[in-house]
Amino acid sequence: MDYNLYHTFAREKLGIEYNDIELLVTAFTHRSYLNEHRKTVKEHNERLEFLGDAVLELVTTEYLYTNFSDPEGILTNWRSALVRTESIGAAAARAGFEPMLRLSRGEKRGTERAREQILANSFEAVIGSMYIDQGYEVAKKFITENLLDTFAQILESGSWMDPKSHLQEVAQSQEGSTPVYKVLEETGPDHDKVFKVGVFVGNQLKGVGSGPSKQSGQQKAAEAALRQYGKA
């Protein structure tokens, strides 16, 4: 184990001198790595992730409550957009977390979506390690600089809205039309249906999505349409 690598990362990327560098190493250790190194590795990052998730939600909630006077429902949607997997996974990637991850050989060859989830989990785990080693204010500073600073972009893009609401706003703004959803196909037995849904704007098919219910199919279709508009 090259602890110097993690000390250097903490110092240069996180701006922190860890008292217990083992905490940071654990924060980057995926469950799969432990499964392949049981003789030398005793803990993976899920407990730190559990703690970091709580710290992240508190810091984000405090930030929104302090800086905005909008209703609770709006603040909840904004918080969800900030702490969702895509947002914190991207923050971890920007902070250079990926080369520090300790993964099994199989996980290293995983899908892009799986890697995004692993990065998001590591972001929360690192926050947990900071909280234990350095305290709340240091963890808060890291979250503010690496995640909350993206909030203006989230507001501008409208990505905090659910896909159907966002698409309706985009379609009405750009084309003066309201999206219409139509079931294109139903497949599977009654207990395991799959609904293929299309969303049309001004009689043009803008997106197609599938799901186990009409509602989930509509959400997927709206997401596809937003990508076409360049708003996803």
- According to CATH, what is the class of the largest domain? Mainly Alpha
| CATH homologous superfamily classification of the largest domain | Ribonuclease III domain
Shape: globular
Computed over alpha carbons, the radius of gyration is: 21 Å
Strand percent estimate: 5-15%
Question: In this structure, how is the largest beta sheet organized?
Answer: 3 strands, antiparallel
Amount of helix: 55-70%
Supply the number of helical segments. Answer: 12
> Strand order of the main beta sheet, please?
1-2-3
User: How many individual domains?
Assistant: 2
Summarize the structure.
The chain is mostly helical.
Structure commentary:
The chain is mainly alpha-helical. The protein has 2 domains: 153 residues, Ribonuclease iii, N-terminal Endonuclease Domain, Chain A (Orthogonal Bundle), CATH 1.10.1520.10; 67 residues, Double Stranded RNA Binding Domain (2-Layer Sandwich), CATH 3.30.160. It is built from 12 helices and 3 strands; from the N terminus they run H-H-H-H-H-H-H-H-H-H-H-E-E-E-H. It has a 3-stranded antiparallel beta sheet, with helices on one face. Helix 11 crosses helix 12. The two termini are 41 Å apart. The model has no long low-confidence stretch (mean pLDDT 91).
